[in-house]
Specification:
5 strands; five-stranded parallel sheet; alpha/beta; hydrolase activity; 10 helices
């Protein structure tokens, strides 16, 4: 029987689907696979456009409970909210009310097909939004207004923080904070004041370095995926942390030098 590799699953919307892209010379998915090669399989289950209601309905088609010959999900990263946070418009139907969004996140994590794996779960906040850029693109695409707003999107990221804080076995990965902190630090003359307007918010009128990190106002590029990777990397590899690479700790199949059943007869 083939030996199944344990899995690290990226479950979310286009922000995880795009983790496979190599545009700009960096791929989050490839970086994670390189870090965990021969120990875990990185499985991308990112679905562009999905909100949490759609993800919850599709979940039984995406995940199966563990079985003796199949892989087990050891780590599960969940990233939704960018679409749930859409404003209600005649031309866009992705919006999920915030209370329902919170309930959906809990239901996804508690779903029997996931719970049976007993994975270590990480909740990821959606990144900031450059509403100034989003407005330009949405109006050009025929929407009567911006499909997303910076303040609303930030409030959905706060909901993710709340859910993670309420569940002791869930770890928060604050992508919103990391991307915004980087953008503010690289925007000369801009000072983010508590409760003040954000970069990318029409109220501030300043896109700043967000225009480099979120080229279309919403999706990550290579630089911002590197920021994401720097957040995730420390959470993986405890199984072989502190060991020498040549010891091959955690390999599913052993090194060729120490596997007697690989020797020539």
């Amino acid at each position: 029987m083939a030996v199944p590799y344990p899995q690290i699953v990226l479950f979310g919307d286009s922000l995880f689907q795009g983790a496979a892209d190599i545009n700009g010379g960096f791929s989050l998915q490839a970086a994670l696979q390189s870090q965990c090669i021969r120990r875990f399989d990185i499985v991308n289950r990112g679905f562009s456009g999905y909100n949490t209601s759609q993800a919850l309905k599709a979940l039984p088609r995406i995940f199966a409970p563990p079985n003796p010959g199949g892989p087990k999900i050891e780590y599960l990263f969940i990233l939704f909210g960018a679409n749930d946070a859409c404003v209600e418009l005649p031309t866009n139907h992705q919006h999920v009310p915030q209370a329902s969004f919170k309930a959906n996140l809990r239901s996804i994590m508690a779903h029997p097909s996931i719970a049976a794996h007993k994975p270590k779960i990480f909740l990821v906040t959606p990144p900031p939004l450059d509403e100034i850029r989003i407005t330009e693109l949405d109006l050009a695409a025929g929407h009567p207004a911006a499909t997303r707003q910076a303040k609303i999107s930030a409030s959905y990221s706060e909901t993710v923080r709340q859910v993670a804080a309420e569940l002791p076995d869930v770890t928060l990965v604050d992508l919103w904070e990391a991307v915004m902190d980087t953008a503010v630090a690289k925007t000369p003359g801009f000072e983010q004041k508590p409760g003040g307007p954000l970069l990318g918010d029409p109220e501030s009128g300043v896109r700043g370095y967000l225009k480099h990190l979120l080229p279309d106002g919403l999706h990550l590029n290579a630089e911002s995926y590197r920021i994401f990777y720097d957040l995730v990397r420390p959470h993986l590899g405890s199984e072989w942390a502190g060991t020498r690479e040549e010891d091959r700790v955690g390999y599913v199949l052993p090194d060729w030098r120490v596997a007697p059943w690989l020797e020539d007869p």
